[in-house]
Amino acid sequence: MAGHSQFKNIMHRKGKQDAVRSKLFSKLAREITVAAKMGMPDINMNPRLRMAVLAARAENMPKDNIQRAINKAAGGEGENYDEVRYEGYGPGGAAVIVEALTDNRNRTASAVRSYFTKAGGALGESNSVSFMFNRVGEVSYPPEAGDADKVMEAAIEAGADDVISDENGHTILCAFDALNEVSKALEAALGAPTSAKPVWRPTTTAPLDEDKAASMMKLMEALDNDDDVQNVFANFEIADDIMAKLSA
C-alpha cells in the first residue's frame, strides 16, 4: 500500500521504538490468539495462525510471547474479539480501510470515527471505498533472498501473480485465497519470508499536498496507536519533497 508504506517509513524514523514495539507485540499476540481460537492451535493445520506467527517472527517477537498467545487460545483464556472493518475518506479524499479486532464494537467505532473527523475526513458505510482496492495475498522478502530473476522464477513456480523487486526487497502478489499455498511454496524455495499476509491493494492513488499530507499522517498515527486497530490500508500518495519535510 503506497500510502501505508510511506507512513510506516516516517514512524520508524521518528524513533520511540520501545513503545512502538510493545504496542506492535500486543497487536500481533491478539491476532495469534484469535487465529488459534478460530482453528486448531497448530500452524501446520491452521493457515491463519501460520500467517500470524510468520508476521510475529518477522518483527522479532520472542518465541515465548508467541507460544503464550497460542496457549491462551488453547486454554480457552482471553477475551473474545470480533473482526470489524471500517471504511472512510481521509484528508484530500484519500480512501482508507481499517481492520480491527475488538471486544467492544461501540468503543472502537466511536474512536475510529473521531480520528477521521479530527483529521478532516469522514467514516463511511461498509464497502464505501473497498471497491477501489483489490484483496490480494502479499509475501515479502529482503534483498538477500536473491536477485530479481531468482525470485521471479520462484514466484512463477509457486503460482503467484506478480513480483515487484527494488532496492528494498521483493514483494510477491497472489490471489487472496491462494496465499497459504503460495507462501509455503516460496518458503521452500527462498526461505522464510519477512511477511505473508492478506492486504488491500489500491487500484488508484490520491496525491496529497503538504497540508493534507500532514493531516493524513495524524490520522494514520492515531489509528496506528489504537489498541483495537490491527491494519490500516490507504491509497494516498505523497511527493518525496513533502515526505522529507514531514519526516524531518
Automatic annotation (TrEMBL):
In which domain of life is the source organism classified?
Bacteria
Q: Name one GO biological process term.
A: regulation of DNA-templated transcription
Annotated TACO1/YebC-like second and third domain residues? 81-236
Compartments, as annotated in UniProt: Cytoplasm
The record's section on InterPro entries has: Integrase-like_N, TACO1_YebC-like_2nd/3rd_dom, TACO1_YebC_N, Transcrip_reg_TACO1-like, Transcrip_reg_TACO1-like_dom3, YebC-like
Residues making up the signal peptide according to the UniProt record: none
| Gene3D superfamilies, per database record | 1.10.10.200, 3.30.70.980
All copies of domain TACO1/YebC-like N-terminal, residue ranges: 5-75
Q: Which parts of the chain are coiled coil? A: none
Gene Ontology CC terms, in alphabetical order: cytosol
Q: Which UniProt keywords apply?
A: Cytoplasm, DNA-binding, Transcription, Transcription regulation
Q: Does the keyword ATP-binding apply?
A: no
Query: Which GO terms label this protein's molecular function in UniProt?
Result: DNA binding
NCBIfam families reported in the protein's UniProt record: PRK00110.1 (NF001030), PRK12378.1 (NF009044), YebC/PmpR family DNA-binding transcriptional regulator (TIGR01033)
* Homology family: Belongs to the TACO1 family.
Name of this chain's protein: Probable transcriptional regulatory protein ARD30_04000
The taxonomy runs:
Bacteria, Pseudomonadati, Pseudomonadota, Alphaproteobacteria, Hyphomicrobiales
